[in-house]
Each structure stands twice: as structure tokens, then as C-alpha cells.
Amino acid sequence: MRYYLYMLFSAWSMFSLAQVQDNLSETIDNKYREDQFYASITYNLLVNNPERVSQSDFSTGFHFGFIRDMPFNQKRNWAIGLGLGVSSNSYNQDLYITQDSGTISFSTDATNLGNVTKNKFTTYLIDVPVELRWRTSNPEKFKFWRIYSGFKFSYLVYNSTKLRSSLQDVKLSNLDVFNRLQCGLTLSAGYGTWNFNLYYGLNSIFYESTQIDGQTIDSRAVKVGIMFYIL
Length: 231
Description:
The chain is mainly beta. It is 13% helix and 55% strand. It folds into two domains: 1-31; 34-230, Porin, CATH 2.40.160. The strands form three sheets. An eight-stranded antiparallel β-barrel has the order 1-2-3-6-7-9-10-13. Strands 4-5 form a two-stranded antiparallel ribbon.
């Protein structure tokens, strides 16, 4: 009799333990999300520039934000990401921006400026990234391969320019020549902590009405850098 009671108790215990493990696994799966906070440092390039416009010195970008990870398959290794972030982007180049009697002028001629030691403009953006995410992660795995691709929509909240030369210093801000709405393609790929990050702008940093020597300034941003994800 004791033998049968022991067997019955053992079977019940194993069944109860299996149920607990199943419930625990299901609970873990239901809450399993990845890479919801991000930080990135980028090297910023300008492409599709007008003639005689080129970059000088190192141009950097700093990006921070939160992306809501929304898995849509049972393994939770496929997900949609929708986020909100901020970024600052500087561009060192030889497109000289000046203002005279309220009129903004663009030039690549430094004859009247003397020796130019610094010339850059900086944009401050609110970013909305949208991503399709694939990774090799699971609830107990903290290092894994990932490939995230998508779009980033940005709204310009502030801009500034700085021109420093031997003859004059020009500092301007909130110019209405910069495109308020910007968008581009994004790609992040890597393993563990270190991830390659790429942004390719689909529209110009400047409004279409912005011109130099009768030519539209259609400069677009390309950002290449390192992306870090946590939680």
C-alpha cells in the first residue's frame, strides 16, 4: 500500500513540477523583449552636394532613445520596433552660411573671410525609428546576432551654424533654410555589445528653395557608426 501511495505521490509531484515549469516558460516568453534602449555614435557624411562643396574635419553624431520591442512570433526572435529618441549631428564643411540684413547667404568663396579655422552647422532632432527586427536571442541568452532594418523619421527642433575665420566670426541659429522633416533608411547589425549602424538620408537637409549660385543645395546625410543596445 505504501508503495502505491509513494508512486502516486511521485507522479503527482512530477506532474505539478512540469506544470510549474510550463507556466514559468510561458510567463518568460510573454515578457521577453530585447534591445529597448539604444545609444549610438556616428561619423556624419554629406552626399549629393553642390559643386565645390566638400567636408572638412571630423563630423560626429550622438543618438539616444527608446524603442518598444514588439515580438510577433512564438520564438520572439522576430519583432517590430517603434521608438522615440533625440540626436545631435554636426557637419564640418566649406559651405559658408552668413546673414546680412536678415538675408541668409551661401557661398564657397572664402576670399572675404581670410583664414577659415572652423565652419560647421549642427542639427538637433527628435527621432522616430521604425524597425523590422531579427535576432538569435532567447530569454536566457544575453549575447546574440541581430539584424535590424527600417526607417527613421526626424523632426528638426533646433539648428545652429558657426563660422570662425581670421576676419570674422559668425554664429547663427534657428535658420529657416533647414528641412524640418527628415527621413532615411536605417540598418543595425552585429553581435553582443558591438553593432554596426548605418543611416542613409532620403531627403535633403535643406529646403528645396535653398540655393547656391542658382543650384539647389540637395545635400543628404549619411551616418556610419556604432550602436549599443541594453534591456
